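Two folds, back to back.
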Amino acid sequence: MSGRQVDRRRLADVVLAAVVGALGTAVAAFDDGTTALDHALVALASAALAFHRAAPRAVLAVATALGTAYVVHAHPGPLSALPVLGAVHTAARVGHRGVAAAGGAVFLAGYVATGPGTQHVAERAGLLVGWFLCAVVTGLADRNWQAYLRQTEQRALEAERTREEAALRRAGEERLRIARELHDSLTHSISIVKLQAGVAVHLAHKRGDEVPPALLAIQEASGEAMRELRSALRVLRADEPTGTPALLVERARAAGLTVDLTVTGDERPLPRAVDLAAYRIVQEALTNAARHAGPAKVRVRIDYGTGNTGAPTGVLAIDVDDDGAADPDRPPVPGTGLTGMRERVSALGGTLSAAPRTEGGFAVRARLPLVEAL
């Protein structure tokens, strides 16, 4: 909260206390027999409202004690309850329902016990009971409304963060796809051109013939093209993730997702493509669980080729399960994330299963050979 917002709230609290104090003092001035002590009690009870945000229960206690003392001493009208009503509302607003109701009951007891005229006091007491009930109910309603607004804001922020992460992930995957295509097509073709030009130059030198300038130009240009292509590939691959699945799990926990991580086998450095695929699979599975599973528990199991998860030895097994709301009778339509996972696993010669579980929830099963695809 900024300093300007704090100053505005403090000013609003002071204004509230001043308005209630002015009303209470004005009403007290029209009552016969009002003394300086009565005016002091009204002023102090009203002034306490200026601190209701910092200490709502203390303000309620002070306002109730001073307000009760005032009605016992001066026997005023119902408007004398204004400071206590304000304190009851603010206490209920922050969740102290029992304390708020007790404060109102103490004031009403003092008002009824000392008021002259049984029927007249009963009518006024009934009016005050309605006021105090309204103060408690409106306080609780305001508290629920504020909680709803906070939850809505958090959901909006989470949705925005998820959209940004998905966009960045898709952009990164597209850059890596382009890098792979360039590497697999252009690099191979340019290498063949450079190799053939080099062989031709070598044979010309061996026979003692003059090397054609065009052949030398082709050799030099192909070498320069290879260097520039490698630089472009480094730029395209510059955003490859440097984290680990364990780091992704920690981030998911920090975001409020309940996640358990189990790692079996000899955790060790993996081939670059396998490591990247494993990172993206866990990332996408956790993102989908956070977005679609609801308040579910997620289990992440990674096996480094021991066969403990049922996969053959020498295969990296990744299992991500949740007990969320997915229904096997209504399988989801594969989106960009699931499609990207499947393409990445297939490129490595592995297998992927991503579908609702029979017992409910969603399961992702990935099996990646622990050798980098050629």
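---
second:
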Amino acid sequence: MDTLDQAPGPPVTSSSTATPTPVAPASTPAGAPRRFGSLGPVGLVLAGGISVQFGGALAVTLMPTAGALGVVTLRLLAAAVVLLVVCRPRLRGHSRTDWSTVVVFGITMAAMNGLFYEAVARIPLGPAVTLEVLGPLALSVLASRRAVNAVWAGLALGGVFLLGGGGFSDLDTVGVAFALGAGAMWAAYIVFSARTGRRFPQADGLALAMAVAALLFLPLGIVESGTKLLNPTTLALGSAVAVLSSVLPYTLELLALRRLPASTFAILMSLEPAIAATAGFLILDQSLTATQAAAIALVIGASMGAVRTQVGRGKAPAPTNAP
């Protein structure tokens, strides 16, 4: 996978300043995607990362009340309701391949969320995100056709392990396994988010996939948390987590993936541990050490290098992939 294009419409360049194909006003819910698109693909990714990590920190404070699976259930349900109401996706006129893509996307989101929240229930937020980001980093090497992207991925990987203190042997083994599993699902999420974005207008595919994820997770949340999910305070906080961790970031990332190659997007995801460490400091009172600050600098440097490489590539149109 090299260049992603918006559907419907002709190919766009892979430059971070590329303009997406115009969409008829009737298909633009409340004008939100168009306004978001003015940020540029890199800005969309960064805004989504900030939103999801601060939402994750808020979710950690809710887990003692609702449990990890309960928090995921509230997050997915609230996000699905918001997206379905705002987007009002069309159910007819889609091919079997369209539906299979959106269903797999929903399964991927459900698995990614469930595994990650089970991880942060056992290990701190920073190390959990540090391990999770290995999935997108691996994708960046596998998806890229340029050797220089492997260099940026290697630099980011060094920062990721430095952020984890040089090793994770003191962490709960099950929590580490959950975080690594979430990373694998994150890589799959990047792939299927891009495919869904090409097959459905605006955020319609995201809304449908979120509904699939919510329906899949509902029985698990009920089994673990039961009537705790109906507590007004829990519902309010769960809805806030849904907006911060699902509605905003997934919409922004889906739009960004229409205009960025998966390899560049995946390396940008290596900023997530730095953002998570900041959110942990501000919300969970988790301070940063000098080593962690150095790791953040490495990760940011790798991401800046990836963006500069991609901007240089975007000076000429690039071929598109088949859906």
